[in-house]
Design a protein that fits this description.
This protein is an alpha+beta fold and about 90 residues long. It has three helices and four strands, in the order ββββααα.
Length: about 90
């Protein structure tokens, strides 16, 4: 994903254009792995293989999302890990 793409994206659920970007891995031109977080509804959208996966909740894969959160815990804000939508790591520990 190109960094400037964030300027034209909005949360597909609440339509908020104020999204936070967390970069985990990038090369000279693109973000390879990262996370986009909506500042309004606290939904997160992984960036995998340069592609932002911005699907509505009912089309998300819970196992894939939890695996992504778990494997990147050290780079993801605590609030997303514990309260992120549609799935969070706190839900798996109950």
């Amino acid at each position: 994903m190109k960094k400037n793409l964030l300027e034209i994206l909005a949360c597909p659920i609440c339509k908020n254009p104020k999204l936070e970007l967390f970069i985990f891995k990038e090369d000279e031109t693109e973000i390879e792995t990262g996370l986009i977080v909506c500042s309004e509804c606290n939904r997160y959208y992984p960036i995998k293989g340069t592609i932002p996966v911005m699907l509505p909740d009912d089309l998300r894969n819970k196992d894939e999302d939890l695996k992504f959160l778990s494997s990147n815990q050290d780079k993801i804000p605590t609030k997303v890990l514990s309260e992120g939508k549609p799935f969070s790591l706190s839900h798996t520990q109950k």
